[in-house]
Amino acid sequence: MLARYVVRRVVASIPVVFGVTLITFGLLHATSGAFVPGLELNPNLRPEDIIRIRNNLGLNDPLPVQYWHWISGLLHGDFGRSLVDGSPVLRHISDRLPNTIELTITAILLGILISIPLGVVGALRRGSVIDNFFTFLSVAGVSIPSFWLALLLILLFSVSFHAWGLPWLPSGGAESAFGGGDPIDRITHLILPATCLAFVYIAIWSRFTRSSMLEVLSQDYVRTARAKGMSERRVTYLHALRNSLVPLVTLIGLELPGLVSGGAIIEIVFSWPGVGRLALERALQYDYTMVLGLTTFVALLVVVGNLLADVIYALLDPRIRYA
Amino acid sequence: MADHLLEVQDLHTVFPTKDGVVKAVDGVSFHLDPGETLGIVGESGSGKSVTVLSVMRLLQRPGRIASGRILYKGRDLAKASDPEMQEIRGEEIAMIFQDPMTSMNPVFKTGWQVGEPLRLHKNFDAKKALKEAVGFLHKVGIPEADKRADQYPHEFSGGMRQRAMIAMGLSTGPNVLIADEPTTALDVTIQAQILDLLRKVNHDFGTATILITHNLGVVAGMCERVMVMYAGKVAEQGPTEDVFANPKHPYTWSLLRSIPRLDAQEHEPLRAIEGLPPDLINPPTGCPFHPRCPFRIDRCIREMPPLEPVGPTQLATCWVTQAGRDLNEAAS
Ligand SMILES: Nc1ncnc2c1ncn2[C@@H]1O[C@H](COP(=O)(O)OP(=O)(O)OP(=O)(O)O)[C@@H](O)[C@H]1O
Ligand SMILES: [Mg+2]
To answer: pLDDT digit string (tens) for B92-147?
Structure first.
């Protein structure tokens, strides 16, 4: 039943992905980029050469034909080649993806591990000083721009700590340029960007857990659980928490596309060699195949993320049927 | 005194709110003996649920017991610690609620939930608790209990869920079963089945039962004694037969007259109780029923009558009947 549901959902999402590619394609062609940046500036090329190169790249074909070439390649798993360096788009993505996954998964795990207890405590002690403090933190978390927080963290933990002679954290990159790459080295590089990214997740998810928990705690079945004589701890963590996590799962599942987009700013500030930074770099260079490929890739992630969330949702809540 | 299984003395339960302190239960006293069935009736908001939730110490925020004693086997539950209450709930006193559709946790299997009190209180392991739970599901009339135990609550009908709730309450062999409007959310035929089941439980297991209901017919059919509540206070209490035949409080009297009767004269209008239930934050002076009472005397407006014996078997809070007047006679 689950397998059939997954297949049906995948089929249903094909038009969505197609739509995204069409829109992105249209938007990119509506901009005034030359698509092969710098070609005209090369003094060794004659105008005929430029026309020939553009012809060879298919850039002078009618738009539908161009789109057709690109999309039929995509159907074979070919995302095309970068117009800037000529290497396959997919190779760029697969080079950068592990870094992005490392960063985002760490941030999401941190987010889950911290936000759920914060939300639960906030709900159990609603109105208390500690609850108000958490509320303050989470308002701060959503309103502080992450690039600003990132700069502050760098200033404190990299610059000032260094100046004070304390153990300091690297301010950028995924590993040290010289002799780096061992786990310890990678983790020290990971700490600041992951914390920064997790901060936003914690802010949102802890609020969400709190309100969801409050709602569940007022449910009749929680009263039933208490009436059976179980401890408040068991009531909270066994009977209430599981129910209140069901909607949170969807929220977290929707964060999966953030693997690429959500962390982009953080990746840029911390020079993290991930997919988000790749997208920004290439967009600034008019690398249109690259941007098209990355957008499509994100669209696929959105679809997978939603599907994953729905499946977990159904596993947590037996009332959900795969309909 | 300590002979009663459960004895509530002058219970006051309040809800401090923004608008003022809601005196939801305002000086309620009653008792319950082993094996008997006590009915609690009264209009919506009269404090029936709050009374029994106080006994279970399951009041919702911001509710709290302001004063009074709740003696269970001589122990005062009003002062019991949380761990002590956890021992009592589900093991000594079990409770089932109005809406079976929302009273079970949707994410756990029914058998698991029914067996939970056994795991908590009797230290049964999961397997043994499940086996026992299936046995109880069977006893409360759920067909194919072993299969049903493996299903989730949403796969049960309302009546079946209420049966499962009863099984859950009974599994530990409690001395008291509190049922707060257990059939209100069910349709009529199912109501009758559930009430039959409660009667059978009371009979077979000797579980003393407190049954809250709006249905006076149910009280007449099931309860040896009845307590009538009005505005958080006891209007009257006594053996069901006596109270129904010869009410000693004008509220009971009006309530009984407001039931539609099959043998009524044609075109005889239904006699609703006129006026509105009182505000529990600023209750009227004296007896809370006086603004609606057809028998009112001056004293009722000034002073709240105590709960005192009226006649050989009943207790009532009414100056009129305590002075010896008979309501049925006075009205005719
Ligand atoms: N959580 C709460 N906060 C404030 N007031 C409350 C709360 N719970 C109950 N009350 C008040 O207590 C009063 C008694 O409520 P209760 O639920 O005991 O009535 P009831 O007799 O059980 O009515 P019903 O027949 O509708 O179930 C109500 O008037 C209500 O205003
Ligand atoms: Mg009630």
So the answer is: 999 999 888 899 999 999 999 999 999 999 999 999 999 999 999 998 999 999 99
> Across all residues in chain B, what is the average pLDDT?
92
Nearest C-alpha in A relative to B167: A228
CATH 3.40.50.300: does it fit domain B6-223?
Answer: yes
Task: Say what the ipTM of the complex is.
Answer: 0.89
Residues of chain B contacting residue A218, judged by C-beta atoms under 8 Å apart: 60
- Which residue stretches of chain B have pLDDT < 70? 1-2, 261-270
Q: So where are chain B's domains?
A: 6-223, 256-331
Mutate to test the pocket of ligand 1, among B14, B21, B22, B99 (most ligand atoms within 8 A of CB): B22
CA angle, B37 as apex, B192 and B257 as ends, to 5°?
Answer: 70
Task: Kindly state whether A230 is in contact with chain B, defined as any CB-CB distance less than 8 angstroms.
Answer: yes
Q: Which residues contact B252 (CB under 8 A, 6 or more apart)?
A: B228, B235, B236, B243
**Alpha-carbon distance A258 to A198, whole Å?**
12
List the beta bridge partners of residue B48. none
Q: State which CATH number among 3.40.50.410, 3.40.50.2300, 1.10.3720.10, 1.10.357.10 fits the domain covering A97-270.
A: 1.10.3720.10
- The pTM score is 0.81
